[in-house]
Amino acid sequence: QVELVESGGGLVEPGGSLRLSCAASGSIATINRMGWFRQAPGKEREYVSAIKWNADITYYANSVKGRFTISRDNSKKTVYLQMNSLKREDTAVYYCALETVVGAGWNYWGQGSQVTVSS
């Protein structure tokens, strides 16, 4: 059983910052990538960012590039998403996800953390 637990969401004003965390626990033999997705009301879930677990490789959606930074702590099996210069359109439920091996797809998902950007 694998569990992903997110934390760090909340309400922030436009231009503000938040940091999301996602800790993985359970029987995890390998991790290829961890990533973040988001789903705004009435919209489909979209990819935000991902990070390779054993290489310094990161990926970002164009909409967040230059504003968001993904990082990881392998010893804690935790991935972070630092979100700066937040915009109202960043409002969504943010989900973390884990891919065990290359090509497996996103095997595991967190429960979601609400981020609301509003004045």
Give me a quick take on this structure.
With 119 residues, the protein is an all-beta fold. The chain is 0% helix and 52% strand.
List keywords for this structure.
119 residues, mainly beta, seven-stranded mixed sheet
What does this structure look like?
By secondary structure, the protein is an all-beta fold. Strand 9 and strand 10 (108-109) form a beta hairpin. It is globular and about 45 Å long. The protein is 0% helix and 52% strand. The strands form two sheets. Strands 2, 4, 5, 6, 9, 10 and 11 form a seven-stranded mixed sheet that branches. Strands 1-3-8-7 form a four-stranded antiparallel sheet, with no helix packed on it. It has strands spanning 2-7, 10-12, 18-26, 33-39, 46-52, 58-60, 68-73, 78-83, 92-99, 108-109, 113-117.
Radius of gyration: 14 Å
**Dominant shape:** globular
Structural class: mainly beta
Give helix % range.
under 10%
Number of helices: 0
Topology pattern, helix = H, strand = E: EEEEEEEEEEE
Mean pLDDT: 96
Task: Report the uncertain regions.
Answer: none
What is the subunit organization of this protein? single chain
Taken as a percent bin, the fraction of beta residues is: over 45%
* DSSP E strands, number: 11
Distance between the termini: 40 Å
Major β-sheet, in short?
Answer: 7 strands, mixed
